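TL;DR need structure tokens for one chain.
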Amino acid sequence: MIGEMWSTLFVFVPASFIGLGVIRRVSRLLHTPLMSLANAISAIAVVGAIIVTGGDGPTWIRVLGAVALFASTTNIVSGFLITDRMLKMLKTPGSGAAGPGESKGKA
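>> reply
TL;DR here they are.
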């Protein structure tokens, strides 16, 4: 049990530093696509957290599953809100999408 925890910690700590280093070097223009990817990863984490929380296991594992479920859900919701806000900032006033066969200019 202790050896398994050390090996998990050995993977988690370097992965955290590598992820932080990669994200810091990303251009600001790419943050919206990365948020979409982060939302997809969080969705996978939500499924795993639901499985852990609802499974047969010690109470502390189920509590950690519930915390992971809350954190992942919060990450997904906030990611969608931030992405929506960024996309609204990029829209120009009065720019409606033209339907099929219609032109945006005046005839």
